[in-house]
Write a structure and sequence with these properties.
With 325 residues, the chain is mainly alpha-helical. Helices cover 61% and strands 3% of the residues. It folds into two domains: 4-28 and 39-206 and 303-312, no CATH class; 210-275, Alpha-Beta Plaits.
Length: 325
């Protein structure tokens, strides 16, 4: 089975699951279907970050959006263990971003490249956004954290997130269109320049025991690995790829014509991890940890369907505005 026949189905599978989750959550919010999908909380990373700090300070696991916190911790853990495999294998935004730049290449004959100085400047934006969110959250004391977690806004943050898209404003729609256009022109525009979540995972992934390694004695220096890298890493010039931009996509390894020249290896004993092994272990660990969250009651919200119903019917009340708004 080839590279595309492994990663693409995984990406498509997670994308379909996310669409299905969104549809189920839409039915829950609009028709009060009893089947609320907890995985919808994956789209609440700021709430999860706040809950993570509260967990660290108090040892108390958030019961409002427990699946959001569980997924946040799982994604952080898998990014340490498997590089940014979440970004290139699981994240639906990453999948759509990849499809857009590949579509752009077919439409325009190529993807455009930003000059190095501007590229570095733009990449700093996601780290500045990450720094802003971390500063905002870590400046909150235990009392403020608890107050936010139990606030009316946070209790319906998932509903507000859904309505952002179902009742989207013209300004937000235009911004999304612009981002899609930029994603057609430039590889992984959102992920590379604007995603603070990706920035966090990149920093965590630098401590991963897995690294793309190049054997200079076998390498023919053809440059194919560098050419196909969606993160613009100069792979052919590295002995080991340490960059936080590496997303574990295996494009460079698969493109290499010299067997053994480029491989994913464990630090220390340099044991080779094949594409198939990587995919199987990544997905197994990801789903096992979700299963663990479910059986330890760290998955389903404590908010009842009746409470959701009452709050959704009154969702336009100013009490549900963001506390910092």
């Amino acid at each position: 089975m080839g590279h595309k026949n492994i990663r693409n189905p995984v990406q498509i599978g997670f994308l379909i699951f996310n669409i299905y989750t969104g549809w189920r959550f839409y039915l829950f919010v609009n028709y009060f279907s009893p089947s609320r999908p907890p995985s919808a909380e994956a789209y609440l990373p700021i709430s999860a970050l706040i809950s993570a700090k509260y967990l660290f300070l108090t040892g108390i696991f958030d019961k409002i959006h427990p699946a959001g916190l569980s997924l946040f911790l799982i994604i952080i853990f898998t990014s340490w263990l498997f590089k940014r495999g979440f970004c290139s294998w699981i994240c639906p935004i990453g999948t759509l971003s990849e499809w857009l730049f590949k579509a752009g290449k077919k439409i325009f004959g190529r993807n455009f490249k930003i000059t190095k100085f501007i590229d570095v400047s733009l990449r700093s934006l996601k780290y500045l956004l990450l720094l802003f969110f971390f500063y905002a959250v870590f400046s909150m004391d235990e009392f403020i954290l608890k107050e936010f977690i139990n606030s009316p806004y946070n209790r319906v943050a998932d509903v507000k997130m859904l309505k952002f898209f179902t009742d989207i404003s013209l300004d937000a729609f235009i911004v999304i269109l612009i981002l899609m256009l930029l994603s057609l022109l430039f590889k992984n525009f959102w992920c590379r320049y604007l995603c603070p979540y990706g920035a966090l995972l990149g920093i965590v992934s630098m401590a991963s025991p897995l690294k793309i390694s190049r054997d200079s004695d076998v390498c023919t220096e053809c440059g194919k690995c560098t050419k196909v890298c969606p993160s613009y890493i100069d792979v052919q010039a590295k002995e080991r790829v340490l960059s936080e931009e590496c997303i574990g996509c295996f494009d460079c390894v698969v493109s290499c014509p010299a067997k053994g020249a480029l491989e994913l290896k464990l630090t220390g004993n340099r044991k080779v991890v094949s594409l198939k092994t990587y995919a199987v272990i990544l997905l197994t660990v990801f789903f096992m940890l979700i299963g663990l969250a479910q059986i330890t009651n760290h998955w389903n919200t404590s908010i009842s369907v009746n409470e959701y119903k009452e709050r959704i019917q009154d969702i336009d009340n100013p009490v549900y505005s963001h506390p910092g708004g």
